């Protein structure tokens, strides 16, 4: 790995930046939802203190559950998310990555979702199993749209190299792909209106019902990193790649933050859809939109428009 | 789009919750807060501990002393102890309990010598009421008539 790759893994947007930025985004989400509900909301450092508090708690031993396996899932999720963040083309001028890294990014982005599903089934809780089933069904529906959207963007850029995909494009297929990605983010983050997998009034915490202490803290951290990864991916697709790094880095943060505000406002202003309606939305509307975008992009590419 | 109008209205109207610790009182006179015991009035009968549903109040006795202990962490603020306190030594604060960081910070315990129950207010009133009729004739002595 070259020097720029190490910086992306450990500094920006990797570990050093990602953890505080992820917590900040989680705080912003809670704050926006609170303000829309006329509550004052949590203080700035609340996600950090929540994490510290959870780290200090003991996890009660449970019979019939493999505790090591339960601890492994959030660790795997965090590892894959940090690796995925390191792939984001945040220094487009310094061409990093490799041809086909977009496919690796998609794979790494799926690891937390798979771990969440496995955690639900491993927990031995009926609520965990229901949450895992819901997450699996919703993942299938939203992933189709996400994959088609990414492929659409790749087709317009004629490359699966993330550095080539970065930045705005005149091709409308690029923007339809970005819109498709934005539509998938609430399902990936289990936000309203697609929050059936962790519907707290129905199935407690879904897959995480049996989690407590440090393992739950790690899941919270993984969720914060998911926020940064998904909003950061969209930010890299819309920010001009010609910017100097010292302008690009704050702009990356600001664009991601604006996405957080928008998604949080949507989450606060909408009710939870049933699983059937959520899947219908992705299969019937978002998938059709994404398919139209990829077909139009392919036609434009074929005729060199 | 009613939801958009509602969101904008909520953002415009500001928050209705407070940041802890509270900067001002937000309780009414009927608020059920911490229990206070006046050791001078308490006779150590243990009725409060007997009716306490969560054992937040415990009264332990020796031949000469009794210890009255109160653990607010267990208290549900139901007020049954106040209702059953015959000497009227228990009272309830009408404000929010203070924040505390360590378990047991608000616990209270008194060790007192045993004493006989104070006479009930009704028992005090009864002799007074009994004495009143005797005084009444004097008080009701016929005043000089205007004709005199």
**Mean pLDDT figure of chain A:** 90
Q: What characteristic shape of chain A results from the CA principal axes? A: globular
Structural class of chain A: mainly alpha
The poorly predicted ranges of chain B are: 131-148
Q: Which pair of chains forms the biggest interface, and how many residues does each contribute?
A: A-B, 13 and 13 residues
CATH architecture of the domain at 38-115 in chain B: 2-Layer Sandwich
* Count of extended strands of chain B: 5
Please tell me how large the radius of gyration of chain A is: 19 Å
Question: What's the assembly state of these chains?
Answer: heterodimer
Structure description:
The complex is a heterodimer of chains A (305) and B (148). Chain A is mainly alpha-helical. Chain A has one domain. Chain A contains twelve helices and no strands. Chain A has helices at residues 3-10, 15-36, 46-55, 67-87, 101-122, 126-157, 162-165, 172-188, 200-203, 213-238, 245-269, 275-302. Chain A starts with a helix and ends with a helix. The mean pLDDT of chain A is 90. With 148 residues, chain B is of the alpha+beta class. Chain B has a domain at 38-115: Alpha-Beta Plaits. Helices cover 28% and strands 16% of the residues of chain B. Chain B has helices at residues 2-13, 47-51, 80-84, 121-139; strands spanning 35-37, 57-61, 65-70, 90-92, 108-113. A three-stranded antiparallel β-sheet of chain B has the order 2-3-5. A two-stranded antiparallel ribbon of chain B has the order 1-4. Chains A and B meet through helix 2 and helix 11 of A and helix 1 of B.
């Amino acid at each position: 790995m070259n020097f720029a790759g190490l910086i992306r893994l450990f500094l920006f947007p990797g570990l050093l930046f990602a953890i505080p930025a992820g917590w900040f985004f989680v705080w912003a989400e809670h704050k926006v939802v609170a303000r829309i509900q006329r509550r004052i909301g949590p203080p700035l450092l609340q996600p950090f203190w929540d994490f510290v508090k959870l780290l200090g708690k003991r996890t009660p031993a449970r019979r019939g559950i493999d505790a090591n396996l339960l601890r492994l899932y959030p660790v795997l999720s965090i590892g894959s998310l940090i690796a995925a963040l390191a792939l984001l083309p945040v220094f487009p001028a310094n061409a990093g990555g490799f041809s086909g890294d977009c496919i690796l990014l998609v794979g790494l982005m799926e690891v937390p979702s798979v771990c969440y599903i496995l955690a639900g089934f491993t927990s031995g809780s009926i609520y965990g199993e229901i949450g895992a089933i819901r997450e699996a069904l919703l993942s299938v529906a939203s992933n189709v749209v996400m994959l088609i959207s990414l492929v659409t963007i790749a087709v317009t850029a004629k490359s699966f190299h993330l550095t080539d995909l970065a930045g705005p494009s005149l091709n409308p297929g690029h923007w339809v792909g970005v819109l498709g990605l934005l539509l998938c983010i609430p399902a990936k983050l289990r936000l309203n209106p697609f929050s059936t997998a962790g519907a707290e009034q129905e199935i407690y915490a879904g897959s995480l019902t049996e989690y407590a202490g440090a393992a739950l803290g790690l899941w919270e951290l993984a969720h914060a990193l998911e926020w940064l990864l998904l909003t950061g991916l969209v930010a890299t697709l819309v920010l001009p790649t010609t910017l100097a790094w010292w302008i690009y880095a704050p702009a990356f943060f600001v664009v991601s933050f604006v996405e957080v505000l928008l998604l949080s406002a949507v989450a606060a202003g909408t009710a939870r859809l049933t699983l059937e309606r959520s899947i219908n939305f992705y299969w019937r509307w978002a998938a059709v939109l994404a398919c139209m975008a990829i077909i139009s992009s392919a036609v434009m590419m074929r005729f060199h428009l | 789009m009613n939801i958009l109008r509602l969101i904008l209205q909520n953002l415009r109207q500001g928050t209705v919750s407070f940041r802890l610790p509270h900067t001002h009182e937000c309780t009414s006179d009927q608020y059920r807060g911490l229990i206070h015991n006046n050791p001078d009035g308490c006779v150590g009968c243990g009725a409060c501990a007997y009716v306490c549903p969560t054992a937040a109040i415990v009264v332990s006795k020796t031949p000469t002393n009794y210890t009255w202990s109160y653990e607010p962490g267990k208290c549900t603020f139901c007020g049954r102890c106040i209702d059953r306190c015959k000497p009227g030594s228990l009272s309830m604060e009408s404000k929010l309990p203070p924040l505390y960081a360590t378990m047991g910070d608000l616990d209270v315990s008194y060790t007192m010598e045993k004493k006989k129950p104070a006479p009930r207010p009704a028992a005090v009133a009864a002799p007074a009421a009994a004495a009143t009729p005797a005084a009444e004739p004097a008080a009701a002595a016929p005043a000089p008539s205007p004709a005199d």
